[in-house]
Amino acid sequence: MEVADQNKQAIHVVVKSMERLEREKSLNEYREKAINGHYIDWRNMAFALSSGDASDEDRIQACAWRIAIISPKNPKIDAGDEGNLEMDCNQRGLTEDQINKASDEAKRIILTLKN
Predict the structure, then answer these.
(1) Of the residues 1, 71, 89, 103, which has the fewest C-beta atoms closer than 10 A?
(2) pTM for the model
(3) What is the rounded distance in angstroms from the CA atom of residue 10 to the CA atom of residue 60?
């Protein structure tokens, strides 16, 4: 491998690492705000988990947040939330077991929400 190719590959690895760190930082910020009852951050949390290089676990968590968003505890839901639930829980290739796991996680999320 030529030095230029090695440098490009090294830069790519560094950029991907930085993107992952930035994504994790954003998720942590959304999670903190979401737990404190900021509805828009519930949505941001689900979106951030389902976008980009989402792992299976991230997609399960996104579905869990979507389920929590439409819970009776949330008076602010709208048709968009129902569409997002359909997308993140049913159209992103989650298995029935993964959706069940998301449902269980949603129950835990709802219990931790302060609002």
Answers:
(1) 1
(2) 0.75
(3) 31
Identity at 97, one-letter amino acid code: D
Got the DSSP string for 69-113? Answer: HTSTT-TT--HHHHHHHIIIIISS---HHHHHHHHHHHHHHHHH-
Task: Indicate the domain borders of the chain.
Answer: 3-112
**Mapping DSSP to helix (H, G, I), strand (E, B) and coil, where does residue 95 land?**
coil
- Give the C-alpha separation, 113 to 85, whole Å: 19
pLDDT grade for 115, boundaries at 50, 70 and 90: low
**How far is Cα 8 from Cα 81, in angstroms, rounded to an integer?**
41
**For 54-95, what is each residue's pLDDT tens digit?**
778 889 999 999 999 998 767 788 889 999 999 999 988 899
Using an 8 Å Cβ cutoff, are 113 and 68 in contact?
Answer: yes
Please name which of 42, 31, 110 lies closest in space to residue 81, comparing C-alpha atoms.
Answer: 42
Token couple for 114: 């302060």
Are the C-beta atoms of 73 and 33 separated by less than 8 Å?
no
